[in-house]
Amino acid sequence: MRLSRLADAASLSLLAFSWSVGLWFHRTLPEVVPIHWGLDGQPNGWGPRWVNSIGFPAVATLVYLTLIVLPRRDARKRHDDRILPVFAFYRLVVVLFLVVIHGALLAISTGHPVDVTLLIRIVLPLLLLGIGAGFTRLPPNSYGGFRFPWTLASEEAWTKTHRFAGRLWIWGSLVALAAAALPLLPGAAVLVATILILAFVPLVYALRLRNT
Predict the structure, then answer these.
(1) Is residue 168 pLDDT above 90, yes or no?
(2) Dist. CA 95–CA 64, nearest whole Å
């Protein structure tokens, strides 16, 4: 539980920093700012400045609170609190991801050049890496993981599937992260292929477990 408290302290510190920076820059941002980018990395959508100044801190806060409520509800229902430290780690991973994106949006909104496509090809694999690291300790639950009927019916199948998925997600994310050094099209292709592999290969593995 000590690690859970440290993870939550870090998450709250990041949220406080994101809110502080967002509020600080809110009045200095242009009335209209870029909020969406095309595959070429150029902005193709615009919106009010609050979207980039306080919108992301608000989303990050909502996600953080949701990731507190859901696992606690599940732990009470199952009389099993093993989920709590895993979701404390996930809260930190997701909040860090959103705070980095928020920082990039503020930089862009204040006129600093940011390669959006490169940023996504770096931070998204890191997000997947964090999720995969949590899989190795994720117990059966109502909200996260590869929740197939046969993995939910057997804790052994659940554990084997998520340990396999955790290793796969960690190594796959590292491959996708390394591919960020490639030019845009091949790098993006590797990222998309990696996401598909991470989504479907654990399903195949779980099906093989069911049939053995």
Answers:
(1) yes
(2) 7
